[in-house]
User: What shape does this take?
Amino acid sequence: MTTKHEQLLEYISQLPIGGKISVRQIAKALSVSEGTAYRAIKEAETQGLVSTIERVGTIRIEKKKKDNIEKLTYAEVVNIVDGQVLGGRTGLHKTLNRFVIGAMKTEAMMRYVTAGNLLIVGNRYQVHKIALETGAAVLITGGFDTSTDVIRLADELDLPVITTSYDTFTVAAMINRAIYDQLIKKEIILVDDILIPLQDTYYMTVTNQVSKWQELNARTGHSRYPVVDSNMRVQGMVAAKDVFDQPKHLPIEKVMTANPITVNERTSIASVAHIMVWQGIELLPVTDSGRKLIGVVSRQDVLKAMQTTQRQPHVGETIEEIVTSRMEEKPSGNDVFYTVEISPQMTDQVGTISYGVVTTIMVEATRRTMRKHKRGDIVLENITIYFLKPVQIDSQLMVLPEVLEIGRKHGKFDVSIFREGELVGKGMLTAQLIE
Assistant: This one.
């Protein structure tokens, strides 16, 4: 017999993708209190079955597969950028393949925009329309809106049009950060990655006798088994020490360890390892939210998984890493300068280099200069950009850092940025030096 909570979760999982869900609707459908319905919706959100968006409500979304975890739904993008949905609400459950920054002429931009993309762009109504017709959703930056024709088209095509008050660089950084965070989560091995599923798990029931343990032990060679009731809920664990010298006809529930520690499929293996070592446990039952048995994890599997994790590098790239990875060192006599090419992701909503990117370039150039002086790293205290000209996409920049003053713990630096020999940016930095 399933609990009301389990029935609610099952009901939510069967609802159509993209449909709206409300506490009142769930409560009425299954004749439960609104408090019970609310808790079930929150649990469904934790499980990735629904997403709640301000001013839109809660919608049913497709639960991500493990190999698709680095992709975001449009509903998640709305929450990430504190956005407002102007049109195409019924498409919020869809997953975006990649995002494209629209900081170039329309013809050039549309070469990069394909179905399933998210186009990040300012108040260019015609571009919004073309993107939707291509099959891409639209994220409008700078707090701008769009035309009624575009909103009507978005509703027809089930493609969201979202607006946010943030600029393009900030939005790209926020989305990139969210993708990066998901990639890190993907690399964290969870119980779900290593558990022995229920169909391959040996377990006992509370009605079994000690003779059943002896039979399983002779057949499998294992000495520890979870004990469940008629509804598959875990009631105990039984090991060799529990049945030693006990009569064969004695019920297992008389000798088992009741109310054992259990974990769920979202528990990290680091937490499981800590529990196993601290409690001296060799085998842990894995249960769902209703404490029903769905598998087991052994200490041996956990240790093997942790060894594998230590050998695997992290992946993913933040906006800062995108900027700094494009900087190349060039020798010039006794001096060194750096070159960097401006890509679409480094521009603001009008297609010129973002103020945040200029700051990142200056700080990174200074940091690399100090490393060459064998002075270790820097911690930025203050930066003043007192000259800056607009720099277009695809421009090649030359960055020339200069040490103005350097002490034991502090330094002052001047950084100049040139494009085709013309000064386009100049800033002064003060920083702490870390030997």
Remarks:
- Confidence is low (pLDDT under 50) at residues 310-316.
- The CA atoms of residues 96 and 116 lie 5 Å apart.
